[in-house]
Amino acid sequence: MNRKYRKTVIAGNWKMNKTPSETKEFMTQFKTIMPKGRWCDVALCVPAVCIPAAVRAMRETRVGIGAENVNANPSGAYTGEIAANMLVDAGCKYVIIGHSERRAMGETDADVNAKVLAALEAGLTPIMCCGESLEQREAGITEEWITMQIKLGLQGVSEEKIRKVIIAYEPIWAIGTGRTATPEQAQEVCENIRAVVRKLYSSKNARAISILYGGSMNEKNAYELLAQPDIDGGLIGGASLVPEKFVKIIEAANQPTV
Ligand code: PEP
Description:
Elements (H helix, E strand, L loop, with lengths): L7 E6 L6 H14 L6 E6 L5 H8 L4 E5 L16 H6 L4 E4 L2 H4 L5 H14 L2 E6 L3 H5 L3 H12 L12 E4 L13 H18 L2 H6 L2 E4 L7 H5 L6 E4 L6 H10 L6
Parallel strand pairs: 1-2, 1-8, 2-3, 3-4, 4-5, 5-6, 6-7, 7-8
Helix pairs in contact: 1-2, 7-8
The site of phosphoenolpyruvate has 15 residues, from strand 8.
């Protein structure tokens, strides 16, 4: 982390977990134990049907609510889909885009790019995910792969808007597996992502953008991961479902930094 130049962000990804009633219960507990410090931004990305309950519960707090997906089109005949302006109107501030679980359902880099542009246009903060498979890591092509995902995902994002984008590095082999990247492995990739943003935009923009790590981050390993200079927060799946665990990760983000 480097709070002098950029925001620290701790974001939860609930995936397909919790009903609206369970959301209300979680938020009630979470609010009572939430750390008071203002060192980091906190986001909770929840299933679409839970957004109203989450927004209502967190209205007077500093926790921003987000969605887990968005359709790139502004409106129209896309049964079952949700447009960016609908998420904004529902009270969302964030949206996760290009999570590997959605890419596994067929989402391409072009889809990710269109969604990032639509989210920015509507005023949402996109949390754009990238990450390599175990086979790609073992083949030694992690850097190339991530560079390609970042370049394709950010196509057409202007100089003015790039700082609004949050990038989440999530090695696929670490998501939901309990197998975390080492702080050094995660730092190496996040540093490379910042270098890609520097080449595409500028040093100032690269220094200002928040890059998160995701993949079995929990209350035990968060401190060490977040101590890395290019890891500006976490995208957290499993551990964000339990208020006590999520709070401990937020506390780890409150550690002293440069
Ligand atoms: C995720 O879903 O983005 C994620 C990182 O999950 P987990 O923390 O459970 O590995």
